[in-house]
Amino acid sequence: MNGSAALARRNAATVRGYGFGALALLALMVLGLGVGSRSVPPAEVLRALIAFDPANDLHLIVRSLRVPRCLLAVTAGAGLGLAGGVMQALTRNPLAEPGLLGVNAGAALAVVLGAMAFGLTDVTQYVWFGLMGAGLAGVAVLLLGRAHESGTDPIRLVLAGAGLSITLGAAASLIILNSGLEVLDLFRNWGAGVLEGRGMTATWVMAVALMLGGGLALMLAPSLDALALGRDIGRTLGLDPRLIWGLACLCVMILSGAGTATAGPIAFVGLAAPHAARAIAGPGNRNLLPLSALFAAIMLLAADVLGRVVVAPEEIAAGIVAAMLGGPFFVHLVRRFRLAQL
Q1: Which of 181, 188, 165 is nearest to 107 (CA)?
Q2: Which stretch of DSSP H or E encloses residue 198?
Q3: Where do the DSSP E strands lie in 21-60?
Q4: Is the overall model pTM greater than 0.70, yes or no?
């Protein structure tokens, strides 16, 4: 009886989490379309969406600049949140996240290489380099950290990710310093996580990646729940742990690679969102993963809106705001989980 009551309370909390999250995201979308170096009243935002007038400069600002920017923040944030949730479930590591484990750094290095070697400055071109770099870095850090043997040991995996991130970041900096101004200009905004001016092309690329990677993540959710009980129990239930690992790594590669290529190397969003979702929905990945995507979308959009407000009329990049807010959260997690004793 107590178990049924606890389950009912958990389900009710999950429903409330979805409801409040959707309302928060909608409110942030309205703010994101209206605030900036030039404010647009809510009524004018609504008219720009349903009765667009190309002769009205406020309508052009909303439709051409702020709609793609907000949609990119939502889709990229959701992708990073899903990637973080899958990584934490796969490794059973509360500190797993694409930024901390070198996946974003691998995608960033690959994008810089593509821009330098082939002159790729359009997102539809260098996104493939981002996907490849994310995949290679993810495989490297999992092998270096021996995550397939010790997923519950955060120290080895986080140290491997930190070392790889530093190495790849140094390599990217070396390439940028020895490249032309075009590569430097690309990295200057993209590397800080600036969402302004990316256009609908980046949003469409990220949306396709989110559909592919998100669909794969939701398909894997029951298998990840089963593997959380242990490899032997997973095999007893008819699962192939190697296949699950491979598909989960492919999912993370698609989501974090596309997210980094389109929005820049955003840190901590994929770390914080799954923890917030887990506090509401519990450990079951069927609800945890979608809720992680929702909360991460809220976090990145909020970081973008906050970056437009705090130093208005100037702006702070969403990636910088996310790092400033996520850094203390990471310290809190380290203290909470007593990293040295896990």
Answers
A1: 165
A2: none
A3: none
A4: yes
**Bond from prior residue into 94 cis (ω within 30 degrees of 0):** no
Angle between helices 42-50 and 2-34 in degrees, nearest 10: 90
CA distance 135 to 245: 13
> Phi-psi bin for 223: left (phi > 0), alpha (psi -120 to 50), beta?
alpha
Residue 224 in tokens: 């990840």
Give residue 75's identity as a one-letter amino acid code: T
Q: In angstroms, rounded to a whole number, what is the distance separating the alpha carbons of residues 169 and 192?
A: 13
pLDDT tens, residue by residue, 14-31: 999 999 999 999 999 999
- CB of 94 closer than 8 Å to CB of 280: no
Token output for 234: 């997973």
Strand, helix or coil for residue 96 = coil
Report pLDDT digits (tens) over 37-70: 888 888 899 999 998 888 899 999 999 999 999 9
- Amino acid symbol at 61: I
Q: Quick one: what percent of the chain has pLDDT higher than 70? A: 92
Nearest residue to 329 (alpha-carbon basis) of 295, 283, 284 = 295
pLDDT of residue 152 exceeding 60: no
Query: What does the alpha-carbon distance between residue 284 and residue 279 come to, in Å, rounded to a whole number?
Result: 11
- For the cut 90, the answer to whether the pLDDT of residue 219 exceeds it is yes
**Mean pLDDT of all residues belonging to the chain:** 84
Question: Which DSSP category does 53 fall into?
Answer: -
Q: What tens digit of pLDDT does each residue of 325-342 get?
A: 887 877 777 666 554 444
| Nearest residue to 98 (alpha-carbon basis) of 227, 215, 242, 273 | 273
C-alpha dihedral (245, 246, 249, 251), degrees to nearest 10 = -110
Check residues 184 and 74 and name the one with the higher pLDDT. 74
Are 27 and 61 in contact, with CB atoms under 8 Å apart?
A: no
CB 48 within 8 A of CB 58: yes
